[in-house]
Amino acid sequence: MALADSARGLPNGGGVSPAAGPGSGAAGSSAFPEIVELNVGGQVYVTRRGTVVSVRDSLLWRMFSQQQPGELPRDSKGRFFLDRDGFLFRYILDYLRDLQLVLPEHFPERSRLQREAEYFQLPELARRLAQGRGAAGGGTRPAALNRDGSLCADEPPALLGYLEAEPPEAGGAASAPSPTSSRSPSGGPLLTPSQSLDGGAGRRSGYITIGYRGSYTIGREAQADAKFRRVARITVCGKTALAKEVFGETLNESRDPDRPPERYTARYYLKFNFLEQAFDRLSEAGFRMAACSSTGTCAFAPEQGGPADDKIWTSYTEYVFCRD
């Protein structure tokens, strides 16, 4: 039997007060376990029931106080399933624990987190996130970036690597932005929006490495019978700012969501699995292939119990692209 909410020391008493009236959750309190397991978009969370019902009239409050366990969807292991962004849910859960909003210093997903707060019907959290977006970029505009890649709240909205205009000379008109008027910490010039995807001068230089693992089967007739399997995942390694500039919304940042723009990462991967699509995006952004390498290993052969006359090979390939 679950412990009384008043004994848990959680926000708002950890749940629904008995004085809330008929149907306010008394039945759900005895039906749900004290510790609940949630599968949110493939990410597993384990928490107290009192935490998920800490905000009255929210979606989770209604699910775990107004419904019975058998009425909620579950995954194959019996965990309660929510088809939402599993990585952003950790901030939702943090808020439910103490009703405080604490985000990393470089947090690029504020608008998406606000959408999750609205879905879970947490109006106070959504309001705080909306206020934070307004302070960072003036209303709903994106926040500007300093030359060191940090977020700046008092500059006009800018795309990644926005060039600053040079100050006007005495007695003259303001000059147009120059490719050399602002430079990155590494000494390379920063980008204007018009220079980010074309061949103009003054673009940020750097390297991006594309990698993938694959497997294929070769039969007795060698290449004539080669059966290639689909690429499972394309990984992206390099500076965060460059990767986001090139791949935009097709970049999956879930494995490294809080990486600052000027830091490097090897944990990004693409939401599609066509190498040519990745190459097209790199080419449009002005990158060229500088090197590539590949390894192959026979992972499964007939003498190891595999299919007769077939050999299953695994490979790992990397392509290095650069932009001067």
Key structural traits:
alpha+beta, three-stranded mixed sheet, 12 strands, disordered N terminus, phosphoprotein, postsynaptic cell membrane, BTB/POZ_dom, cell projection, H1_KCTD8_12_16
What do you see in this structure?
- With about 325 residues, the chain is an alpha+beta fold.
- It has helices at about 25-30, 50, 60-65, 90-100, 110-120, 125-135, 240-245, 275-285; strands at about 35-40, 45-50, 80, 145, 150, 205-220, 220-230, 235-240, 250, 265-270, 290-300, 310-324.
- The longest helix is centred in the middle third of the chain and has 15 residues, at about 125-135.
- The termini are far apart.
- It is found in: Postsynaptic cell membrane; Presynaptic cell membrane.
- Its main location: membrane.
- Keywords: Cell membrane, Cell projection, Membrane, Phosphoprotein, Postsynaptic cell membrane, Synapse.
- This is BTB domain-containing protein.
Task: Tell me briefly what this model is.
22% of the residues lie in helices and 25% in strands. It has 324 residues and is α+β, with helices and mostly antiparallel strands.
**In DSSP terms, counting alpha (H) and pi (I) runs of 4 or more, how many helices?**
8
Which radius of gyration do the C-alpha atoms yield? 26 Å
Q: Quote the beta fraction.
A: 25-35%
Model regions low in confidence, pLDDT < 50 over at least 5 residues? 1-29, 138-169, 171-201
Helix content: 10-25%
* First-to-last CA distance: 66 Å
The gross shape turns out to be: flat
Query: Would you tell me the overall average pLDDT?
Result: 73
Q: Structural class of the helix and strand makeup? A: alpha+beta
Total count of strands: 12
Order of helices and strands: HEEHHEHHHEEEEEHEEHEE
Q: What multimeric state do the chains show? A: single chain
